[in-house]
Design goal:
Layout lengths: L7 H6 L4 H9 L4 H4 L5 H17 L9 H18 L2 H21 L4 H10 L4 E2 L11 E4 H8 L14 E2 L2 E4 L1 H22 L7 H13 L16 H11 L6 H13 L4 H5 L10 H11 L14 H6 L15 H11 L1
Antiparallel strand pairs: 1-2, 2-4, 3-4
Helix pairs in contact: 4-5, 5-10, 6-9, 7-9, 11-12
């Protein structure tokens, strides 16, 4: 696929690209140099994008100076890394990915498939005529679709609901952007986790302290201990405790299990504030719906082990024995204790 030449406005919108690093090196600047006092405006923008990400879950798309916007991204990464707090890292990465998603959805030129290929190393092929009425503009290899669609649990991402043609799955441009968002989220998280903490002066340490104070609290421990919860539920709780995204099915399983185990709606909602995409109103609705307090007013059952396995959230170990449902694990371990 033919690549387009990216300008400084593109780099300001999509700062995770390799061209951003090349641009900064072209200015003969290191990240350490950018954090110095003379780059006060850069630091202020970096701080605002971080605090917006933590407080609002989004980062403002508007910017008045392209160079400041470009330079503020690596500085923001330095500040986030210096917190050394997992759920802050995850929340920031998701907000940056959502910002990119907002820009991409507004793009008028054919940058989306180009960006998709650059980030995921997968070339979206233009779909043949006839699929226009379904808005299926592109197709990607089946194996690549399956590898990434597993993280989405709405029915539209299930293979049985997809149009497949000669080993390719047809997708809309919006779906390309959604897949891109998840890849960028993981890319930023990986970059942050693998980078080292640079030495900060007192001014920057004060900024990091301010960022930590602005962050949502780390979710309280929920009493995970061996023999109490089955490994699939424990895994969901561990992801929550570290502020990582829990796949939709993992959230459903964990919520249904804890409700049946006697936890209240509020007990469960209290687990979520550190999750990157946490919205209390949405979370409350979902938990109350599973509890049977909304919607059809019927409480959901805890899914069977086979269903959990088919949804790629099974972490069975030897303690599970021959159980068919996670609730049997709880009864079994209580009986054996």
């Amino acid at each position: 696929m033919k690549l387009v030449e990216l300008g400084t406005e593109d780099l300001a919108r999509y700062p995770f690209l390799d061209e951003t690093g090349e641009y900064i090196r072209g200015l003969d600047l290191s990240v350490e140099e950018i954090t110095r006092a003379e780059y006060h405006e850069v630091l202020e923008r970096a701080k605002s994008r971080v605090i917006d990400a933590l407080k609002k879950g989004t980062i403002a798309c508007e910017f008045y100076n392209r160079e400041i916007e470009i330079l503020s991204f690596p500085v923001a990464l330095v500040l986030i890394k210096a917190t050394k707090i997992e759920h802050i890292i995850s929340r920031y990465a998701l907000a940056e990915a959502k910002r990119v998603e907002t820009f991409l959805l507004k793009e008028k030129r054919p940058i989306i498939p180009i960006m998709f290929e650059r980030v995921l190393n997968i070339e979206p092929i233009k779909a043949r005529d006839g699929f226009d009425r379904l808005h299926l503009e592109y197709k990607i290899p089946l194996v690549d679709f399956l590898k990434r669609a597993v993280q989405f649990h709405t029915t539209s991402w299930r293979l049985v609901n997809r149009v497949i043609e000669e080993g390719f799955v047809l997708v809309t441009t919006t779906e390309l952007v959604r897949l891109l968002r998840e890849e960028i989220y993981e890319m930023i998280r990986s970059r942050l986790k693998s980078s080292s903490v640079i030495k900060l002066d007192q001014r920057l340490r004060d900024t990091v302290d301010e960022i930590i104070r602005a962050a949502p609290p780390i979710p309280a421990k929920f009493g995970i201990f061996s023999g109490e919860y089955p490994p699939c539920v424990t895994k969901a709780l561990e992801l929550l405790e570290t502020g990582q995204n829990v796949p939709h099915y993992g959230r459903f399983l964990m919520t249904a299990f804890l409700l049946h185990a006697g936890k209240s709606v509020d007990n469960i909602i209290d687990l979520y504030p550190g999750v990157p995409d946490f919205k209390e109103r949405v979370t409350r609705y979902q938990v109350e719906h599973i509890a049977g307090l909304r919607g059809g007013r019927t409480a959901y059952s805890v899914p069977s082990c086979n269903t959990i396995l088919s949804n790629n959230f099974c972490f069975r170990n030897h303690n599970c024995g021959t159980i068919k449902n996670p609730l049997q694990f709880r009864r079994r371990t209580k009986k054996n204790s």
